[in-house]
Design brief:
Blueprint: E1 2-6, E2 9-12, E3 17-24, E4 30-38, E5 45-51, E6 60-62, E7 70-75, E8 80-85, E9 94-102, E10 107-109, E11 113-118
Parallel strand pairs: 2-11
Antiparallel strand pairs: 1-3, 3-8, 4-5, 4-9, 5-6, 7-8, 9-10, 9-11
């Protein structure tokens, strides 16, 4: 499974961004996709996750820090996941990574995309 993120960039506080993650390869094995982020000097943290298994309803979960400001979604036909982030804050500045978890509990990672929020 290969994951490629896009959509990062520089945005002012209060602005919005939509990140995309395109998956390729054996995507049928993926059960959950998620966004993680890592700020300088901090550990990588889970931002949001969505179930992607065929027939699944697309259950979502969010970190408390982004709840109400972020929406994770997926387009199974395009093998693409999205993260819409609104009301961005300087503390949202981080490298955002796409993650996919297979049915055999293997984690796949994208290369990351930088999001910088200026105050």
């Amino acid at each position: 499974v290969q994951l490629v993120e896009s959509g990062g960039g520089l945005v002012q506080a209060g602005g919005s961004l939509r990140l995309s993650c395109a998956a390729s390869g054996t995507t049928s094995s993926i059960n959950v996709m998620a966004w993680y982020r890592q700020a300088p000097g901090k550990q990588r943290e889970l931002v949001a996750a969505i179930t992607t298994a065929s027939g699944n309803s697309g259950s979502t979960s969010y970190a408390q820090s982004v709840k109400g400001r972020a929406t994770i979604s997926r387009d199974n036909a395009k093998n693409t996941m999205y993260l819409q982030m609104n009301s961005l804050k300087p503390e949202d500045t981080a490298v955002y990574y796409c993650n996919a978890l297979s049915s055999t509990l293997i984690h796949y990672w994208g290369q990351g995309t930088q999001v910088t929020v200026s105050s």
